[in-house]
């Protein structure tokens, strides 16, 4: 079991956990958004450019990355959040595509498809601190009034608005918060793995994050972290029979959705809660 | 001029392939309200099926490849529908409205993985000499048999589809479900059956498109699925989500733009064309060329 404390692997698990948290934040209130991947790319490149071109040191570069990501998130949030559901998924997917295209072609900043070498300035200890800080933030947020408003919005955005929750302001705030986490994660990614290229931030990463969040469970905030850790190791373990890896991961995701929509962390207490929600739902809305 | 004319024709051929792909994606999206991430994988499997069909049957006729592609696409779609989507659909609030979408992501991985297990690391090619590459002069341009087959199949397929959707009872029900599932159900439409039919038709179209594409480039690999799915998504965003006509126009636009990018010497950027086109259209018309904007009002 030596691979359990292989520092590279631990690093990847920590990075995946931060990025998965970012995706969880949008998922938790029902926004199906792939934007996290695009923002992670922006954060990674901003951090890389800050370190290599602008002469910043590690933490200022990360701050710079988060600031840029947040600013961009504010700009794109307003037009994007006019839509919901699948439409938002498509739009954010398009956004991620565009970021990838820019990263490939803006050679001055990104060194194009060859990728950008970044000085390694972050170790696993820093990553652990960052992850714990993110976890505390998300945990406090979930139990705050803001977090409960989010829960209400996930269940029914119109009703939430009807009881006085300012849904528009909240979703924008949430989108930006998720982007900030993604930018932070991306910056950490660049500084930990000291090499970034546009194809790191492709659909594959988006789908991996989705897998972490769904298998870990969307009903608990720590689901994303649990999913990221377990699956990073599972994926590593599966390199022994790499051919079957996508089959197994795909089956895992599909079976999770069909059998246990609450994911791993939703398992023990899922039944009673789900049944009650189901009963409430069927009492409130005409069943189709 | 004749070079550009030739390339315009090639672009239309490529666009026809894309059209068959994108129309299936749009149909499923508007009737099932599911963005089908497995669509690219079914496309790829259609291509694999075409090669396998040629190899096992041994008759080197384009139709063999096309029929194999359609059969495999249909079978996969039926399995996915009954094995996954139908089960989710019957659950009370089965994990929220995003569950089926995420499930198709899992299915897509499985299909690609199974494809790579079945074919090994290298892409498949047709038996040597199975495809005629002879070009026929047609006015100022040259066309191959396969190019004609692609355009003919695409036109035929889209016309049949159009006839089904706008002139039959099934099509009327289908449009009703797309418009408002609950109302359609109240009016006696068997919504579950319509969903199944739509998904299977879309699978057959994807298989057919995959077979055609494989026939024209003589290459089949499960790994094209992500690429093609990205293009399919780009097309339906460009055309306007939920609009069949938009998907066809978007397909032709993308096909021509990609081929022209090669003609003017930007072949390195061919795969970025979809992204750029997407970006431009989203800037100018966020709802897509033929889409109406869906705004949530609270």
Write the layout of secondary structure elements.
The complex is a heterodimer of chains A (288) and B (298).
Chain A: H1 7-27, H2 35-52, H3 58-80, H4 85-105, H5 107-110, E1 116-117, H6 124-143, H7 145-155, H8 157-162, H9 167-193, E2 195-196, H10 203-216, H11 223-237, H12 245-259, H13 267-284
Antiparallel strand pairs in A: 1-2
Chain B: H1 2-32, H2 39-57, H3 62-90, H4 99-119, E1 135-138, E2 141-144, H5 145-167, H6 169-179, H7 181-186, H8 191-217, H9 224-239, H10 244-263, H11 273-284
Antiparallel strand pairs in B: 1-2
Helix pairs in contact in B: 1-5, 1-8, 1-9, 1-10, 2-3, 2-4, 2-8, 2-9, 3-4, 3-8, 5-6, 5-8, 6-8, 9-10, 9-11
Please give a handful of descriptors for the protein shown.
heterodimer; A: 288 residues; mainly alpha; 13 helices; B: 298 residues; 72% helix
Q: What is shown here, in short?
A:
The complex is a heterodimer of chains A (288) and B (298). Chain A is built from 13 helices and 2 strands, in the order H-H-H-H-H-E-H-H-H-H-E-H-H-H-H. A two-stranded antiparallel sheet of chain A has the order 1-2.
What does this 3D model show about the protein?
The complex is a heterodimer of chains A (288) and B (298). Chain A has 288 residues and is mainly alpha-helical. Chain A is 74% helix and 1% strand. Chain A has helices spanning 7-27, 35-52, 58-80, 85-105, 107-110, 124-143, 145-155, 157-162, 167-193, 203-216, 223-237, 245-259, 267-284, and strands at 116-117, 195-196. In chain A, α1 (7-27) packs antiparallel against α9 (167-193) and α2 (35-52) packs antiparallel against α3 (58-80). Chain A is globular. Chain B has helices at 2-32, 39-57, 62-90, 99-119, 145-167, 169-179, 181-186, 191-217, 224-239, 244-263, 273-284, and strands at residues 135-138, 141-144. The longest helix of chain B has 31 residues, at 2-32. Chain B starts with a helix and ends in a 14-residue tail after the last helix. Chain B is built from eleven helices and two strands. In chain B, α1 (2-32) packs antiparallel against α8 (191-217) and α1 packs antiparallel against α10 (244-263). Chain B is mainly alpha-helical and 298 residues long. At the A-B interface, α4, α8, α10, α12 and α13 of A face α3, α4, α7, α9 and α11 of B.
């Amino acid at each position: 079991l030596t691979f359990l404390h292989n520092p590279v692997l631990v690093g990847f698990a920590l990075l995946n956990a931060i990025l998965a948290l970012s995706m969880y934040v949008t998922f938790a209130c029902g926004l199906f958004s792939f934007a996290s991947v695009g923002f992670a790319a922006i954060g990674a490149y901003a951090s890389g450019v800050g370190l290599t071109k602008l002469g910043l040191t590690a933490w200022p570069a990360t701050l710079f990355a988060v600031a840029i990501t947040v600013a961009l998130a504010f700009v794109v949030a307003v037009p994007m959040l006019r839509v919901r559901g699948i439409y938002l998924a498509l739009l954010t997917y398009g956004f991620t595509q565009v970021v990838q295209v820019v990263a490939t072609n803006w050679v001055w900043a990104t060194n194009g498809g060859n990728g950008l070498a970044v000085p390694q300035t972050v170790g696993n200890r820093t990553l652990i601190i960052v992850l714990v800080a993110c976890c505390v933030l998300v945990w406090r947020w979930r139990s705050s009034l803001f977090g409960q408003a989010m829960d209400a919005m996930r269940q029914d955005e119109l009703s939430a608005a009807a009881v006085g929750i300012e849904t528009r302001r909240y979703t924008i705030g949430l989108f930006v918060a998720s982007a900030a986490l993604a930018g932070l994660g991306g910056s950490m990614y660049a500084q930990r793995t000291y090499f970034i290229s546009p194809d790191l931030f492709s659909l594959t990463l988006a789908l991996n994050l989705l897998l972490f969040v769904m298998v870990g469970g969307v009903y608990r905030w720590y689901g994303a972290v649990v999913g990221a850790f377990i699956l990073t190791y599972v994926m590593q373990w599966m390199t022994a029979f790499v051919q079957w890896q996508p089959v197994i991961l795909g089956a895992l995701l599909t079976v999770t959705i069909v059998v246990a929509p609450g994911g791993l962390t939703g398992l023990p207490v899922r039944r009673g809660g789900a049944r009650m929600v189901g009963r409430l739902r069927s009492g409130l809305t005409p069943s189709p | 001029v004749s070079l550009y004319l030739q390339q315009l024709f090639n672009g239309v051929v490529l666009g026809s392939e894309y059209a068959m792909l994108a129309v299936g994606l749009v149909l499923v999206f508007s009737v099932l309200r599911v963005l089908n991430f497995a669509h690219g994988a079914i496309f790829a499997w259609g291509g694999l099926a075409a090669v396998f069909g040629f190899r096992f049957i041994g008759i080197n006729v384009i139709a063999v490849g096309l029929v194999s592609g359609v059969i495999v696409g249909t079978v996969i779609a039926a399995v996915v529908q009954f094995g996954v989507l139908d089960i989710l659909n019957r659950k009370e609030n089965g994990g929220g409205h995003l569950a089926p979408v995420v499930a198709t992501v899992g299915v897509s991985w499985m299909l690609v993985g199974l494809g790579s297990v079945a074919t090994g690391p290298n892409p498949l090619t047709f038996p040597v000499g199975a495809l005629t590459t002879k070009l026929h002069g047609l006015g100022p341009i040259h066309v191959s048999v396969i190019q004609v087959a692609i355009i003919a199949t695409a036109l035929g397929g889209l016309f049949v589809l159009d006839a089904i959707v706008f002139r039959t009872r099934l099509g009327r029900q289908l449009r009703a479900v797309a418009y408002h599932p609950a109302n359609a159900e109240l009016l006696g439409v068997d919504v579950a059956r319509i969903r199944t039919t739509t998904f299977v038709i879309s699978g057959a179209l994807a298989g057919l498109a995959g077979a055609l594409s494989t026939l024209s480039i003589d290459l089949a690999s499960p790994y094209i699925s992500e690429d093609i799915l990205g293009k399919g998504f780009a097309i339906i965003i460009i055309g306007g989500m939920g609009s069949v006509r938009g998907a066809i126009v978007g397909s032709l636009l993308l096909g021509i733009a990609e081929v022209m990018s090669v003609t003017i010497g930007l072949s390195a950027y061919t795969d970025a064309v979809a992204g750029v086109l997407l970006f431009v259209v989203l800037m100018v018309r966020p709802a897509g060329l033929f889409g109406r904007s869906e705004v949530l009002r609270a």
